[in-house]
Every structure is written in C-alpha cells, then in structure tokens.
C-alpha cells in the first residue's frame, strides 16, 4: 500500500509521506508526529480495525481507511471505530489526493463506501433484522448452541429460538433462504456480520 500511496503523493507538494510500516505498532515506533494515518484493514499482525484506530487515537492521530473493500466485516468495523472516512484503492488518484488533503485537516471524508458501511448492507436492511436479532445471528451462526447464545445475551432460550425462526423467515422472504445453520453462517458472512476466515498461507 505504501508504494501505491507514495506514487499518488509524488507530485503533490502539500502532502508528505512521513513514515510507513506493516503494522500500527511499527508505525508508532517510528513516529507519533503525524496529522493522519492511512490504514489498510488487513495487517500482518492480525490486528483489528478498532484496536488500530484506538492506538492511533491515543496519540491524537486521525485515521483514513484505504482498502480494497472486499471484506464487509472489516469495513463495517472500521466505520464503527471512528475513522474519518473509508477510501477504496480503486478511487482515481485525483480523488484520492483530495480525500487525503481533507482528512489531513481533520475533516470527515463522506464517501459512498463509508456511508454504506455505517448504514449497513442494503440487502440486510431489506431482511429487516433488529440489533438484538443480529446479536443472536452472529453468535449462533458462528457455532454457538441456542442455549449458549441465551446465556451470552441474557435472553431466554425460547426467545433465541423464536429469533432464529424469524431470522430464517426474513431471509427466505428476501429470496435468500437459510434453512440450516451453515446457511445462516453464509448469510452472516455475506452481510458482514462475521469476519471472513483467514486464507491459509502458502
């Protein structure tokens, strides 16, 4: 990512690439005198967007996300973490520069991708799940039993079972049936409510 950004910034005298690192901890070890950090969502140390944004914020550094946007879970996590914006790597260079200039001044960058991440997936809105139902879906689809989900959420087990029935019904009505637990796991992945499994390293 740093090489690509360096290329974008090369002909702009108003912006300076001060430091680059593979991890946020590595960046902060180099310097904390930064107006803005441009963060990729997938870092080699397996850190989360929330922990990285929080670590930068402790030093008064604002964050702009620069991502391929292929993982809705990570994008949504970044949006909730309080970043200034979410910028796709496919954004034209001129627009990328404008966004970085704006973020470097501490001004939010209202891109469509950021708004979509905050609002949630359009398909999920059509399904119409409540926040409590989403909690149940995420836990159950990730492998927990209904009784365990009940303990973790403070709900009665029968309430969890009822929620799961309503969730399945709403997905079916949206043309995305999820009759099995595996199907619910797939839907939760599609809508960004569970992190995608890490790809095995070769």
UniProtKB/TrEMBL annotation:
PROSITE patterns listed in its UniProt record: HTH_LUXR_1 (PS00622)
Pfam families cross-referenced by the UniProt entry: GerE
Transmembrane segments: none
Keyword DNA-binding on entry: yes
InterPro entries noted in UniProt: CheY-like_superfamily, Sig_transdc_resp-reg_C-effctor, Tscrpt_reg_LuxR_C, WalR-like, WH-like_DNA-bd_sf
GO terms under biological process: regulation of DNA-templated transcription
SUPFAM superfamilies in alphabetical order: C-terminal effector domain of the bipartite response regulators, CheY-like
Protein name, as recorded: Response regulator transcription factor
Native source organism of the sequence: Antrihabitans cavernicola
């Amino acid at each position: 990512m740093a090489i690509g950004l360096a290329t974008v910034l090369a002909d702009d005298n108003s912006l300076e690439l001060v430091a680059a690192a593979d991890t946020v901890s590595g960046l902060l070890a180099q310097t904390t005198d930064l107006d803005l950090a441009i963060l990729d969502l997938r870092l080699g140390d397996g850190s989360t967007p929330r922990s990285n944004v929080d670590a930068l914020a402790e030093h008064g550094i604002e964050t702009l996300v620069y991502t391929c946007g292929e993982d809705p879970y990570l994008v949504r996590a970044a949006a909730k973490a309080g970043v200034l914006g979410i910028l796709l790597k496919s954004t034209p260079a001129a627009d990328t520069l404008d966004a970085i200039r704006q973020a470097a001044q501490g001004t939010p960058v209202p891109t469509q991708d950021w708004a979509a991440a905050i609002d949630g997936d359009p398909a999920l809105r059509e399904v119409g799940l409540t926040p409590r139902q989403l909690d149940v879906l995420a836990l159950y689809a990730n492998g927990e039993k209904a009784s365990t989900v009940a303990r973790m959420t403070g709900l009665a087990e029968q309430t969890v079972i009822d929620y799961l029935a309503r969730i399945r019904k709403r997905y079916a009505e949206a043309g995305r049936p999820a009759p099995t637990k595996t199907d619910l796991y797939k839907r939760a992945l599609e809508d960004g409510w569970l992190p995608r499994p890490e790809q095995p390293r070769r």
